[in-house]
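FORM 12-B: Structure-to-Sequence Request
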C-alpha cells in the first residue's frame, strides 16, 4: 500500500479544500481510493469538495450547476477543453442554452433554424405553429444551423435538433384538449430557462474578458522582457552587443515581437532566441553595411566627411545608452556625488569583478557597464572641436569608406574621449569661437560676426551680430552657401559687446538642427528646417 492511499478520509478532505478543480481532477486519477472519494455520485462530502473548490478557484462560475448536472460534471464541463462531440482539441466555447462545449461544425450539425423546423419534421398537418412546439426550449441566435447556404445568411433562433424531436414527440402524444395547456406551461418554462441561460452566459463572458485582458498584459510583458534582454546584452568589450536599428530588421526579432504567446520568457527561451538572433544579426549588419558602402562610394568628399562624423556621433549615442540609464538612476540615488567619486567607485568595482563568474545577475551586468563607458555624455559638447573629429583618420585616407565598429569603439572613440577631456581641462580664450561657445556661456548671446560679409560702409550698413546658431545658419544658408563651416576663419567673436547685444531669437527645435546648433557640421546630410 502506498502512503497516499493510507491517508484517512478526513485528512484527505481537508487537503482537498486547498486544491483548485484542475488539481482535484488529476488527483482523482492517482488511485482507486482517491477516485472513490472524489467521484462518488451520491456522497454529500464529494459534492461539497467540488463545490468549495469551484467557488474558491473559479470566480466566474459561481452559479450552482444546471439541473441534471452534478458538481463534478459541472466543474469538468467548465474546466476541460475540446469539442464534446468530435474531440477537436482546445475548444472552450460553451453553449449554455444546450449545455454543450463544442466546435462550430458540430454545432451546425446538431442545430436547426426555427424557420426550418416544420419542413424538417415533415408532417405539416399535425404541427400547429413552429414556435408553439419549441416554446419550452432554450435556443441561441445565430446564422448557423442546418439548411441551405442561402438561408443561413439571415440570423435566426437556433434549436438543438434532439430537443425539438423530444418536444415534438411529447406534443404528439398529448390529447388534443391537453395541448393548449401544455403550450402555455412550456412558454413559462422556456422563459425562465432562457433567463438562466443568459445569466450563465454573462458570468462566463466576464471570464472571457478578464482572460483576454490578462493575456494581452502577459504578451506585452513578454515583448518588453525580450526587448530589454536584447538591449542589455553586451559584447566582449562590455559595450551593447546589438544595435537596435539592425535588430529591428531581423526576422527572429520581428517574429518574437508579433508573437501571441502568453507564456513568460524564460532564461532557456532567451538562450535559444539569442542563438538564433546572433547569426541573423551578423548577416543583417553585413548586408546593411554593404548596401551603405555601395551607395556612399560616390558621395562628394565633403558630404562623405559629414557622413563619417555622423557615424561617430550615432555610435557614441548608441553606446551611451546604458550609461545614460545608469547615471540617471544614480543621480536619483545620490544627487550630491561628484564625478570624481563616481570615477573612484568605477575603478574599485572593476577590480573586484574578475573573481565573480556568475553571469545571470544584473549586478554584474551593471558593473561591467560601469567600467566600460565609452564616452561620457558630458563630453559630447567638446566633440566638434576635437582634432580627431574635425580631421578623422579615414580608412585609406578616403572618407567614403565606412569604418568598422571595432575600430570606432577601440581606437577612434577612446582617442576622441581623451581629446574632449583635454579641451574640457584647457579652456580656450573667450575671443575664440570655441572659447566663447564652450566656456563663456555665450552661446545665446549675439556676439558673433560674419567674416565673409564685407562691410564697406560701417555707418550705412553696420555689421550684423549673431548668436552661435544664427551665425552658423547664416553661413550655411545665406548666399555664402558654406558647405563646411570653419569657425575661426569665418566667424569673429566680439565678447566686448555682450552688454549691448540682445539674446538670440532663433532656437533649434528638432534633432538635426540641434546638432547643427551645437557645432556639428551636418548641413550637407541633414535637412535643416530653419
Ligand atoms: Zn466538434
Ligand atoms: Zn430530425
Ligand atoms: Zn556673412
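FORM 12-B RESPONSE
SEQUENCE OUT:
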Amino acid at each position: 500500500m502506498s502512503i497516499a492511499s493510507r491517508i484517512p478520509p478526513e485528512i484527505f478532505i481537508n487537503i482537498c479544500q486547498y486544491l483548485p478543480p484542475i488539481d482535484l481532477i488529476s488527483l482523482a486519477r492517482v488511485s482507486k481510493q482517491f477516485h472513490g472519494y472524489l467521484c462518488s455520485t451520491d456522497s454529500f462530502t464529494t459534492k461539497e469538495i467540488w463545490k468549495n473548490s469551484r467557488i474558491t478557484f473559479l470566480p466566474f462560475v459561481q452559479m450552482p450547476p444546471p439541473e441534471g448536472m452534478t458538481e463534478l460534471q459541472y466543474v469538468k464541463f467548465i474546466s476541460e477543453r475540446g469539442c464534446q462531440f468530435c474531440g477537436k482539441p482546445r475548444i472552450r466555447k460553451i453553449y449554455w442554452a444546450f449545455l454543450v462545449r463544442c466546435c462550430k461544425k458540430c454545432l451546425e450539425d446538431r442545430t436547426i433554424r426555427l424557420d426550418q423546423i416544420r419542413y424538417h419534421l415533415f408532417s405539416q398537418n399535425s404541427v400547429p405553429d413552429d414556435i408553439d412546439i419549441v416554446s419550452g426550449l432554450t435556443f441561441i441566435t445565430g446564422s448557423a444551423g442546418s439548411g441551405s447556404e442561402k438561408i443561413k445568411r439571415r440570423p435566426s433562433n437556433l434549436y438543438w435538433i434532439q430537443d425539438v424531436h423530444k418536444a415534438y414527440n411529447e406534443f404528439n402524444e398529448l390529447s388534443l384538449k391537453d395541448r393548449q395547456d401544455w403550450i402555455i406551461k412550456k412558454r413559462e418554462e422556456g422563459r425562465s430557462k432562457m433567463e438562466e441561460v443568459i445569466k450563465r452566459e454573462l458570468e462566463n463572458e466576464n471570464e472571457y474578458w478578464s482572460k483576454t485582458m490578462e493575456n494581452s498584459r502577459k504578451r506585452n510583458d513578454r515583448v518588453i522582457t525580450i526587448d530589454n534582454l536584447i538591449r542589455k546584452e553586451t559584447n566582449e568589450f562590455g559595450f551593447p552587443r546589438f544595435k537596435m536599428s539592425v535588430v529591428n530588421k531581423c526576422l527572429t526579432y520581428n517574429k518574437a515581437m508579433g508573437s501571441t504567446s502568453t507564456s513568460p520568457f524564460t532564461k532557456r527561451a532567451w538562450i535559444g532566441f539569442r542563438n538564433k538572433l546572433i547569426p541573423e544579426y551578423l548577416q543583417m549588419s553585413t548586408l546593411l553595411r554593404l548596401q551603405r558602402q555601395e551607395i556612399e562610394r560616390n558621395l562628394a568628399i565633403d558630404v562623405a566627411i559629414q557622413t563619417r562624423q555622423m557615424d561617430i556621433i550615432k555610435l557614441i549615442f548608441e553606446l551611451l545608452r546604458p550609461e545614460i540609464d545608469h547615471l540617471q538612476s544614480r543621480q536619483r540615488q545620490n544627487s550630491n556625488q561628484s564625478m570624481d567619486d563616481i570615477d573612484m567607485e568605477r575603478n574599485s568595482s572593476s577590480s573586484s569583478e574578475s573573481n565573480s563568474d556568475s553571469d545571470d545577475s544584473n549586478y554584474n551586468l551593471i558593473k561591467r557597464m560601469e567600467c566600460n563607458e565609452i564616452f561620457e555624455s558630458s563630453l559630447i559638447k567638446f566633440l566638434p572641436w576635437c582634432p580627431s573629429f574635425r580631421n578623422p583618420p579615414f580608412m585609406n585616407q578616403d572618407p567614403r569608406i565606412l569604418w568598422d565598429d571595432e575600430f570606432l569603439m577601440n581606437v577612434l572613440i577612446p582617442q576622441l574621449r581623451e581629446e574632449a577631456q583635454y579641451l574640457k581641462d584647457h579652456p580656450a580664450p573667450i575671443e575664440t569661437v570655441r572659447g566663447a561657445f564652450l566656456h563663456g556661456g555665450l552661446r545665446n548671446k549675439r556676439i558673433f560676426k560674419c567674416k565673409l560679409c564685407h562691410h564697406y560702409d560701417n555707418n550705412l550698413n553696420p555689421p550684423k551680430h549673431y548668436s552661435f546658431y544664427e551665425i552658423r545658419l547664416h553661413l550655411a544658408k545665406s548666399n555664402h552657401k558654406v558647405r563646411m563651416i570653419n569657425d575661426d576663419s569665418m566667424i569673429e567673436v566680439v565678447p566686448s559687446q555682450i552688454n549691448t547685444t540682445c539674446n538670440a531669437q532663433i532656437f533649434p527645435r528638432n534633432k538635426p538642427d540641434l546638432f547643427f546648433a551645437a557645432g556639428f557640421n551636418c548641413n550637407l546630410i541633414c535637412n535643416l528646417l530653419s
